[in-house]
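Revision sheet: structure tokens.
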Amino acid sequence: MRILVLTAPFLLAGCASFSPSSCPAGLQPMTTADLYFGRAMAADSSVSDADWRRFLDEEVTPRFPRGLTVENASGQWNGADGVLTREASKHLIIVLSGAPDEQTKLVAVREAYKRRFHQESVLILEYRTCGSF
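Predicted:
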């Protein structure tokens, strides 16, 4: 977390100067959202692979049908109780289309996960990049 805090001003400075002309030939500006979903739950249980697949099918895919990427991850964080939790996680990557309702959809995905799996938080990072399909 300390690294993120220290690098955030530099990342934000880069976002401020990003323009379509910054992309190499053949690539276009895009916005990507990275979401991190912890899988640890209370009482030494966790979100199973089947639970995750059902969540993806019911909550994420209907909102972002154009496509996405999911990776297994491992993370740690301090919750509101101050306890360090190390846990398996899912890293969801979505290249956004620019549709006006996408922010609402991202919030809905985060809130659905927190509610369904009793999570305190879901991390989201958005950044501008260059890409092509």
